[in-house]
Records
---
Amino acid sequence: MKALVNLQVVPMGTGVSVSKYVAACEQVLAEAGLHYVLHANGTNIEGEWDTVFAAVHRCHEVVHEMGAPRVQTFISVGTRVDKEQSLQDKIDSVSRVRND
Amino acid sequence: MKALVNLQVVPMGTGVSVSKYVAACEQVLAEAGLHYVLHANGTNIEGEWDTVFAAVHRCHEVVHEMGAPRVQTFISVGTRVDKEQSLQDKIDSVSRVRND
Amino acid sequence: MKALVNLQVVPMGTGVSVSKYVAACEQVLAEAGLHYVLHANGTNIEGEWDTVFAAVHRCHEVVHEMGAPRVQTFISVGTRVDKEQSLQDKIDSVSRVRND
Amino acid sequence: MKALVNLQVVPMGTGVSVSKYVAACEQVLAEAGLHYVLHANGTNIEGEWDTVFAAVHRCHEVVHEMGAPRVQTFISVGTRVDKEQSLQDKIDSVSRVRND
């Protein structure tokens, strides 16, 4: 099943900056061959469910290995069986309504 | 890696009531042998990462099979490497502070 | 408008323990006269939209005052116009399906 | 207090398409004078806490007025007192790490 996911990883018990952890998770997503788009409050990911969640699991491991003792992650995941939809399709469909 | 998860499944393109879908996902969690606790805005789950997320995947499949064309799910997942912690430990640790 | 909310506050740039911050936010909710129920991954809150979100705002201020330089909070908020529903109603409606 | 927010509105008890509701909420944000950026899984918003959450409240009202009997919304909100940060700053800080 294809999943469209928003991933926001919050390292705890470490400094205030999260950018190095976000960049490390991006690297994990790239190595998994996933399509992803960074935004200001997370990373949107498109891919097969199992591939996506194996990468999110690996991301937690990496953030722990980088020194964060605790990680709290927020995931929004959408699946649908009525039609195929990509991350870009979702943005395009709002643009169409907006310009009606 | 052990994960403490809050799962909130939102079926879309169907009626307003979500209780039958929540009950079906509980059944999936029970069959996976996971420890879970229902609350008013989701279900808390405790277990090995892969077991938990395989069950969440299966829950999406079941909700689609029950007729929901689209499912949007919100997951909060915490992992930590500094100590073992259960769902109950998290509640107990707030209680201790509260009663200081 | 009445809102049913799940609130999960994650202090950043501080230690791994969040219990004292959660207890302080509970105190804010109590002072606002809101009905709330702690669970393992957050606090469920029931009340008028504006009262709830004013309390969440105050909770951020308090957590900063306690020393957390950064706070990331996850909120799930539900409203409905078809019927009145309490936090307990949501749990009861799953129980009814479960026991059918 | 300035807040950086991700907003994902999920109308329930209505059709599968959410684009018209997302576009209506964008209109609310624009009328509130807020800076916002649509992405595939929500809308990022930057502004004063009270202005942002008054707009989110108004968005719920509008989505109900458009016919959705139930709305479930997911919000990630970050505040910090150590430095000023914009939505773009967050993206830029990951880019800098990525290109090191």
---
Amino acid sequence: MSSAGLWKTLEALPPGQSVPLQQVFEQIPWNADGLIPAIAQQYDSKEVLMLAWMNAEALYETLEKKRVCYWSRSRQQLWRKGESSGQIQELKEMRFDCDGDTLLLLVDQTGPACHTGRRACFYNLVQGESLVVDKPVLIDPETLYGK
Amino acid sequence: MSSAGLWKTLEALPPGQSVPLQQVFEQIPWNADGLIPAIAQQYDSKEVLMLAWMNAEALYETLEKKRVCYWSRSRQQLWRKGESSGQIQELKEMRFDCDGDTLLLLVDQTGPACHTGRRACFYNLVQGESLVVDKPVLIDPETLYGK
């Protein structure tokens, strides 16, 4: 079955119907770098915390360990979220979108998700002709990552 | 100022401080295709509706008209969300993340955001060894898009 075929099949299914996950893994439309974007959302408050990227290995590890692992594009290596800061993300739910090219992760985020020490990465608000920082730093990054 | 420099400057600002938006526009780290991913979240329920992409023109139009316009990668043209279905997204808030390479749009979505007629695109839930469809179609796509 082609990738588009699998996702088309899912489109037409009523709630409660399913396909085997193994089949899905074979049909993920990875981008040219072998990655898929993953949105992390705090499961209870519903705050959108961040967007990062996963390769296949990061995705499988996240599902197996229920702790979120991304692929760092800048460092070109697996990025086990919280491995240096302690600010881990416990996976509560993983969802694929309608064409399978984006993930939504419902997580329980320990402390700040953002490397700046803010709870979430989206603290830059467009307001008129300005970009305004509207969220405080909760923990100094030097404390989070050591000096 | 380099792109990284601008975003680093913002990192260090306390809440309430800002930079001119024009300066931001010149420092968006567009991907190789000249695009930036945009997460659309329903502003009141906080449900994550979808992820799509914007080029500069789509971004400027969205801010000007307060109606969300994306760039369709499959059709390679501006995609004024709702132009054929009527299911528009009114822009309530636009946010940039910490390194400026992702947008979060708080929107008021009329009806279904998803082309399948479901409210949101993330209806495919990983559950054990299966991918389960867990959201119903609200409006038949044939009704949304005509036949």
